Amino acid sequence: MELDRRTVLRLAGAVPMMAAVPAAIPGGGGPWERLRARLTGELFRPGDPGYDEKRLGFFSLYDHRMPDGVAVCANEDDVRHCVDFAARQRIPLAARSGGHSYAGYSIVDRGLVVDLSRLNAVRILPGGRAEIGAGAQLGPVYEALAAAGRALPAGSCPQVGIAGLALGGGIGVLARKYGLTCDNVESVRFVGADGKACLVSEETAPDLLWALRGGGGGNFGIVTSFTFRTAAARTLANFNLVFPPAALAALVAAWQEWQPAMPDELWSGMGLGAATANCGGCFVGSAAQVNPLLDDLVRRVGVQPLEREVTEQGHLATMRTFSQETAFPAAVAERGRYVATSRMLTHPVPDPDGLATLLASDPHLYSIVDAYGGAIARVPSSESCFPHRSALGSIQIIRGLEGGEAYARHVIGGVRDELGREYGHAGYINYIDPEMPEWAKAYYGDSLPRLRRVARKYDPDGLFAFEQGLAR
């Protein structure tokens, strides 16, 4: 599964933010030059050297967007100045961490992009905690943690930003053992709509901390750093089973009975498509421990895999394997040229053959199923707003742009809506879909009313409002 998964889905998550009230700002000098003078970092405006590079995000679909400015912030004060500037000038505002918003919300068309990429320090604290800048990418985060013998449950793609991942939940290969990324957030540094910086913790602002643990990037304000609880790095066994494509339905039927019966130490996912029926994952322990569990899955499928690989490695080496990077954290030259959506699998698949037909209906369609359960399911709603704790898993539906963007969105939308008829309308905010029906309820579920109250409290004027934001 993971080879196909990483080929198609290199990166995911972002910190999308923009304001709701557009206004024209005079070109040249004036307010923009005053902002430039206040920043320790750099401000890139149209015509400036480097602007055309700095304005781009991961997805080429949004290359037409032209911010009035991109502020590459050097410190928290720079972020404060940017928020204050956008509020005073009444212009759109977007904060960008990794820049991988599926809907492009981290690139505002006209207005100011607050680029957090320089806020990327990773500092190991006493007691097994880590302070991580909101602009850090997962590759360097894993490198720094590994040097201290620590691990954080997070994603497997090295250039995803830690901020977008954590704020929306954070699915990863250690999630069933240690929880979602957001479950390990202890506190954050935060710049609010008033332009002031503060510490958000259980003691200072428990309602806001609750909302930031899964409430999605782009809402409430701009996080500048996180303090995470981490775990001791362990030996891991990562595995990949490649079945014949004709075994897709049998794999789904077997997996949905097998995975919930597995110990928390075992996380797995499936890569499914017209030519793909893979199952890959990670076990917190040894190859000798996981192999009998994989034998059980193969027995349930009833078909021998074409390939079976089990590798015992340290935590960092495992993350490198899942990212498919030989020089991790290496630069990934490719940019995203696909669209995606999601549904939550709220119960077992009643008709695996029907699902197989649906997911194999287009040769350019690819779907990824990630397992939930274990530690994910045991976090009470009072600690985190992430609403999908009881799900069997999530399914992400991805398609390349063959035939054009409109046609690709039509294809994934059809699969999304068909799944919705069986499983309900829930989806995962980090796989944000600009065409998701009833998006607010889909992404936030029963947490939505309280989240809206928090948004009104901390952003009463909707400075951080965007098309699928809580402050709109």
TrEMBL record:
FAD-binding PCMH-type domain ranges (all copies): 63-233
Question: Quick check: keyword Flavoprotein in the entry?
Answer: yes
Keywords (alphabetical) are: FAD, Flavoprotein, Oxidoreductase
**Cofactors demanded by this protein:** FAD
Q: Name one Pfam family in it.
A: FAD_binding_4
Concerning PROSITE patterns, the annotation shows: FAD_PCMH, OX2_COVAL_FAD, TAT
The keyword Cell division is assigned to this record = no
The organism sits in which domain of life?
A: Bacteria
GO MF annotation: an example: oxidoreductase activity
Q: Which family does it belong to?
A: Belongs to the oxygen-dependent FAD-linked oxidoreductase family.
Name of the molecule in the record: FAD-linked oxidoreductase
- Organism name: Amycolatopsis keratiniphila subsp. keratiniphila
